[in-house]
Amino acid sequence: MRILFVGDVHGKPGRRILRDRLAKLRQAHDLALVIVNGENSAGGAGINSEVAQELFGAGADAITGGNHTWQLREAYELLDSDPRILRPLNYPPGAPGRGATVVTGRMGTPVGLINLQGRVFMRELDDPFRAARAECERLRERAPVIVIDMHAEATSEKIALGWYLDGHCSAVIGTHTHVQTADERVLPQGTAYITDVGMTGPRDGVIGMDREGILERFLTQLPVRFEVASGPAQLNAVVVDVDESTGRARSITRVREFEETNAD
Ligand code: FE2
């Protein structure tokens, strides 16, 4: 089965290119499942129910999150009520929502999905490594195919997690930095890996935000409010081909799409 994982959808431009391109990608790659990281889908930080419905309407089957999932208070209720929307698993007990689930692909194949968050240059959460292995064991009884979104800053932490989970899941996909890395590969025990899948949103900003505000902050070191950048959008994703009987990945392929001009 082929699974598309779409990197961090950022604000309206990200939602626009997802809506415009996903149906074609689904057809071209014969996709059985579409997973979208949506932690920045509402205004460049956070998620709400309206935007989540937009992502599902565009063709997403499940939505993962990260540190920005908590930005909008209404996300708390959304996470508790919709099992297709995840937040990182390794938040302390008591956090709203869930960090793992089983979603069903278009062909009826169950797929385990786990969302993690790194701890290097980020909040001091529970251990994502041990949490992931334990959750893989739990999910495997219901689904041999397991996909993990590792939302983390440090390349080293993501690469280490990939090796630690090789053979325990079908794919470890890095998110959060918004810059696609060129290190995609299938590890020796059958786990597809990429350090960062990249960002789906404005191409001409600075990781999705308007470059003027970002530059002002770098140049003055004063607090500046950031806006989502305008202009043409990009879509960054990977297609993972998995043997659904064993859960082993056969291949991982990067996908990059660009708008010629601003479609709005
Ligand atoms: Fe993030």
Please characterize this protein's 3D structure.
Strand 2, helix 2 and strand 3 (62-64) form a beta-alpha-beta unit. Helix 1 runs parallel beside helix 2. The protein has helices spanning 11-29, 49-58, 74-81, 128-140, 155-165, 211-220; strands spanning 2-6, 31-37, 62-64, 100-104, 110-117, 145-151, 171-175, 185-186, 192-194, 201-202, 233-242, 249-258. The longest helix is centred in the first third of the chain and has 19 residues, at 11-29. The protein contains six helices and twelve strands. The strands form two sheets. Strands 1, 2, 3, 10, 11 and 12 form a six-stranded mixed sheet that branches. Strands 4-5-6-7-9-8 form a six-stranded mixed sheet, covered by helices on one side. The radius of gyration is 17 Å and the shape is globular. By secondary structure, the chain is of the alpha/beta class. It has one domain (2-258): 4-Layer Sandwich (Purple Acid Phosphatase, chain A, domain 2). The site of fe (ii) ion has 6 residues, from loops.
**CATH structural class:** Alpha Beta
Strand coverage percent: 25-35%
Poorly predicted segments: none
CATH architecture: 4-Layer Sandwich
Structural class: alpha/beta
Give the bound compounds. Answer: fe (ii) ion
Number of strands: 12
Order of helices and strands: EHEHEHEEHEHEEEEHEE
Task: Tell the overall outline.
Answer: globular
Q: pLDDT average, as an integer?
A: 96
Task: Please tell me the total number of domains.
Answer: 1
Instruction: Report the radius of gyration as a whole number of Å.
Output: 17 Å
- What is the fold-level CATH name, i.e. the topology? Purple Acid Phosphatase, chain A, domain 2
Give the helix proportion (percent range). 25-40%
Main beta sheet strand tally, sense and closure:
6 strands, mixed
Distance between the termini: 34 Å
